[in-house]
Design brief:
Blueprint lengths: L1 E5 L6 H12 L3 E3 H11 L2 H11 L6 H12 L8 E4 L5 H13 L6 E6 L2 H17 L10 H14 L2 H8 L3 E5 L4 H19 L1
Parallel strand pairs: 1-3, 1-4, 2-3, 4-5
Length: 199
């Protein structure tokens, strides 16, 4: 099962990715983790990424794409993977397609968690309050202004991917505002129909 998870920040992608990892026994690939692992392993691409990050610059698409390509060639990805937080832009989506075509593999589905923005901001405020009440540090992303900026960035750059994957017949939408278990159940149902369609 090869999947992409889409949805704005705070939609619950990380939680659902973990559940998919348990269900399908496939790894969750997040660009942050992959970058850190490539840098730690001192792979050629990792060294390039380290040089860019040490200079305080953003890692280019070309480097991120190379790191993802390197990661999906690892043995634990042989039976599938979940891409979380990548692709973020249309050029990255084209790169994923080329990368998979080169390896003669294809995506099974793109799952989008559809959420209500106002409710998301409410969720973030509540998460910050809960952390404070429990005496835990508040994530810097759990500031409503910072969060709204991330949302705007998402709609500007990443939201166009829904149309891109819809046109390819891969998009499966799920109501991300329902309770966590209900979201998991919906994803399971959408993926069943995706694997039937591929059979």
């Amino acid at each position: 099962m090869r999947l992409i998870l889409l949805g704005p920040p705070g939609a619950g992608k990380g939680t659902q990715a973990q559940r998919l990892v348990e269900t399908y026994g496939i790894p969750q690939l997040s660009t942050g983790d992959m970058l850190r692992a490539a840098v730690a392993a001192k792979t050629p691409v990792g060294l390039k990424a380290k040089a860019v990050m040490d200079a305080g610059e953003l890692v280019s698409d070309a480097i991120v794409n190379a790191i993802v390509a390197e990661r999906i060639d690892q043995p634990d990805c042989a039976s599938g993977f979940i891409l979380d937080g990548y692709p973020r832009t249309l050029p990255q989506a084209d790169a994923v397609e080329a990368m998979l075509a080169e390896r003669r593999i294809a995506l099974d589905a793109v799952v989008e968690l559809v959420v209500d923005d106002k409710a998301l901001v409410g969720r973030i405020v509540k998460r910050a309050e809960d952390a404070k009440a429990a005496g835990q540090p508040v994530r810097k992303d759990d500031n409503p202004e910072v969060f709204e900026e991330r949302l705007r960035e998402y709609y500007k750059k990443t939201a166009p991917l829904t149309g891109y994957y819809y046109a390819k017949g891969l998009l499966k939408t799920v109501d991300g505002m329902t309770p966590i278990d209900a979201v998991t159940k919906q994803i399971g149902e959408r993926l069943k129909s995706a694997s039937r369609a591929l059979a």
